[in-house]
Amino acid sequence: MAQFTYSRLSHFLRLSVNNASVSRAAADVTRVPGRCVQSIRWQRSVDSKSLQERQKQQMARGLPKQKPIPGVKQVIVVASGKGGVGKSTTAVNLALGLAENDPSRSVGLLDADVYGPSIPKLMNLKGSPELSDNNLMIPLRNYGVPCMSMGFLVGDAAPIVWRGLMVMSAVEKLLRQVDWGQLDLLVVDMPPGTGDVQLSISQNVPVAGAVIVSTPQDIALLDARRGAEMFNKVHVPVLGLVQNMSVFQCPNCQHQTHIFGSDGAKNLALTLGVPFLGDVPLHLSIRETSDSGKPVVVSAPDSAEADAYRKLAAAVLRRLDALQS
Fold it and tell me: pLDDT at residue 80 above 80?
């Protein structure tokens, strides 16, 4: 038997209300002269518009007020509709690429994936954060980038078995109880999907823009589109789409193979009317450097893979500047 969810219940109640209204209207029509039919329809339209306006006002009052993170000028979120598309690797190399593209800008990195934190491994960081005089957590730092993650607060193999309210409380602490100092940009590695964490951050923090990561395959693009639509609904600008694992080049014969398809994310960006930020290849060095905690941007700066991330960072900066102008 299908589960009777809240959405189904709401749909059922709306149908019931609409059917009841139609039945009453039909009954009234049979008792009034024909010239009153237009008046009844007009009144129902006015009532419906008034109800929608009241609902919008109530929802606006119920939304939390956005508060900037102390010391942080702009927040960029890196998101994906689903897991396994290389979002965290992209977030790490994007943050390092942003710092390299414009050394005058200070960049931080926040791991908001509470259930599956990856930043400690990717940035080769271990240990617990110390507390400042103001009782705020001091981020751990590597490669010149301050980082904060739930992975610093729990053991490497410890599962985080929490319900939604506890997760929201943890995210709030990662946002508000960290001494970031003075940052021009904070890159946030979001969890996959379109759930509570994404909504909480979007509604509580003024986000400058979202970068959406996807592979070219159709199943990933479906979820990437949902992610883009979610950010549109919460009024967060979509900076653009990144096509990760776009092509594999054989190290022996140099033949290129589009394992996951070609130009899927580029075509989706065109459909959504958002910029296409660039391609990142499927390459062994990206996997190896990520697993060893030495991101390719800093460990192999002259490689084509590192150059792809630097171009991505440059495209993000151009997009941010365009939105501000």
Answer: yes
